[in-house]
Design a protein that fits this description.
By secondary structure, this protein is of the alpha+beta class. It is built from nine helices and twelve strands. The strands form five sheets. It has a three-stranded mixed beta sheet. It has a three-stranded mixed beta sheet with strand order 10-8-12, covered by helices on one side. Strands 1-2 form a two-stranded antiparallel sheet. The chain starts with 21 loop residues before the first helix and ends with a strand. The relative contact order is 0.08.
């Protein structure tokens, strides 16, 4: 994960707000004017070219003034563009960027409009508001679903952090957890409030059908027993995911030819990949996706034997495919 924090990093202006240099811009306009006149009067174009080569000529001064005005216009236009970017936005323009994250500028002092003279309201600075804007996606509120989910995935383990910069202005920070640690065993996890003050944490393992081992569940319980992890008002219980087992069985018909074996292999691989993607909490297995996958693999006609209806799981459940069986027949 990589994140830039205003005040701690410097960010170069984007190329879109670049202002063209004066001399190349002036040369470009001189060439344009001469070419434009040459299309109508070559003789006058030659005179004009000679005149523009003289910097004291009135027409040359006029073109220079025009280029300076154009540069000024570009700077004003670029300033408006920068106000659309959170890194440089200020005032009400920054307020609009905050709204994209569902944030508002914090009121620090309500002031006193009835006083004489009136005391104005005091809001947080642009710098503080901008910092909250960049932290918003990375700082779930304590006790929120996202906060619990993050804790399930990390379990308090300290990752190995590497920092590299292969491109100018780009810094990559990568967090790698110990592959033998408990956090690496967690494939999915969530938390749901089952009653006032009661939170149920559900864990799905990467091993086998997803049922977590006793050691993994104990590790999760110990982590959420820490006072700095869960809110004091929450009573947390930990459980393994309820695994909903199913099979995928299909009969696919293809046109006659030498590709039946390849089509069967492709269909099995794609169906297994689809089943793997559904192996998560609240996963859903839909026959319509199986239909789509088989047609993509080359089926002309097909019959789905299992599952006949969508398999829909709850936040405490996860579907697991025990087998993928594909029978290929030629028409």
């Amino acid at each position: 994960m990589s994140m830039l924090i205003p005040g701690e990093h410097q960010l170069a202006e984007p190329a879109i707000v670049t202002v063209e240099e004066f001399e190349p811009l002036l040369a470009e306009f001189k060439t344009f004017v001469v070419d434009y006149v040459a299309q109508r009067s070559p003789a006058n174009a030659q005179k004009l070219q000679a005149s523009l080569a003289n910097e004291s000529e009135l027409l040359t001064l006029a073109l220079e003034a025009f280029c300076l005005r154009l540069q000024t216009h570009e700077r004003k236009y670029n300033a408006r563009i920068k106000q659309m970017l959170a890194w440089w936005a200020t005032g009400s323009n920054l307020d609009a960027r905050l709204a994209d994250m569902g944030l508002e500028r914090q009121l620090l002092d309500p002031g006193d409009p009835a006083a004489f003279p009136p005391v104005p309201e005091v809001y947080e600075s642009d710098q503080d508001a901008r910092l909250r804007y960049y932290l918003a996606p990375h700082a779930p509120a304590a006790g929120s679903r996202m906060q619990y989910r993050r804790e399930v995935f990390t379990l308090g383990e300290r990752p190995t952090v590497t920092v590299e910069s292969t491109d100018a202005g780009v810094v990559k920070v990568i967090y790698r957890f110990n592959p033998d640690g408990l956090a690496a065993q967690v494939k999915d996890g969530n938390a749901r409030r089952t009653a006032p003050g009661d939170v149920q944490v559900t864990v799905l393992s990467r091993d086998g059908d997803g049922a977590p081992s006793a050691a993994l569940l104990d590790g999760v319980r110990q982590h959420f027993a820490r006072p700095d992890v869960r809110p004091e008002t929450d009573r947390v219980t930990v459980q393994g995911a309820d695994i909903q087992r199913y099979k995928i069985r299909v009969v696919a018909k293809i046109n006659s030819g030498p590709d039946s074996g390849l089509t069967k292999v492709a269909a099995q691989q794609q169906l297994q990949a689809y089943a793997d993607s559904c192996h998560r909490l609240e996963g859903r297995v839909d026959p319509s996706w199986i239909d789509y996958t088989l047609h993509s693999a080359g089926a002309v006609q097909l019959q789905i034997l299992e599952p006949l209806e969508p398999i829909v799981t709850t936040a405490f459940q996860a579907p697991y495919c025990t087998a993928v069986e594909v029978e290929v027949m030629t028409i």
